[in-house]
Structures are given as structure tokens and as C-alpha cells.
Amino acid sequence: AERMVSALFDTIDKLEGLSADEYMDMLLEILGGDPIAYSQYFPQMVQTTVHKVYPIANYGSAMAPFYSVLAIWVGGVILVALMKVHAKTDGLLDPKPWHLYFGRYLTFLLFNELQAAVIVTGDLFILGVQCENIGMFYLTGALTSFVFSLLIYSLALSFGDVGKALGVVVMGMQIAG
Hints:
Elements: H1 2-15, H2 20-31, H3 35-45, H4 59-82, H5 97-126, H6 134-159, H7 161-176
Helix pairs in contact: 4-5, 4-6, 4-7, 5-6, 6-7
């Protein structure tokens, strides 16, 4: 065992201070083989086969869910920036807070759902992404829009401009994730 350790230290000492070409030559000498033989042998060791579980025609179709969700989120953030989130109480007889919340939210939900429908339609008919079930794609867009609009609207209503900024921060975290 001591002889192997000393041989290892001797080899390490030989490798230190060598140029890149000398280093490679020394490694080939240590391995004791022909680089051409190695180049033919190693690829044969690793054979891979591709079994497509969910075949996708192109990279654009594979990335469509990510960018569609991102577009729905950006649309919700822009909508909150363009429209007032607080409902007016003029002419209302003692409205409850939840009346004001859901009454105004329905407007945001309607516009966000329209945005999602435009995004999904653009994905399908303008970009031509591969889609196995168009109805489920629209349903997924609608559900995503509902969740995002509820979160973004609630943040903006609860925290004002800070909530709008939090919506942008959450969007950044979504991209990074």
C-alpha cells in the first residue's frame, strides 16, 4: 500500500508544472493507451435510446405553456396598473366590504379572462403550437387567469402600489423558478 501511495505522489509531482500539452501527453502515458482507441471505445460504452413519452413537434410548442402563463401574469399586472382597484361607494346603501371586493374583482376577472382567451387563441392559430386538446388548453388558460387575477387584484387592493410591486416581484420569481 505504501508503494502505491508513493507512486501516486511521484505521479502528482511529475504532473505539477507541466504545460497543457505536456500534461495531456503525461496523462496518456499514465493511462497507457492510444487516444484513437479510447475515442472509439468510450462512445460504445454509453448507448442511449430515446423513448418519447409525450412527443413534441418543436421547441416552440414545448415552451408555449411557460410563455403563455407568463403573458397571462403580465396581462394581469398591467391591468391592475391601468384600472382602479378600489370600488366607488357613491350611491350605494351601506355596501359590505366583500360586496365592494367581489363587485370590482368581477371586472378584473372578465378582462383577465378575455386576455387569456386572446393569448391561447394566438398560441393556437397565429403561432401554431402543437395542442392535443384545444378545449383543455382554453380551460387551463381560464383557470390560470382566474388564479393570477385573484392574487394580483388582492395584492393591489390590500397593499396599494406596494402590492402592485409585489406582483412584479412574484412574476420575477416565477420566471426564475
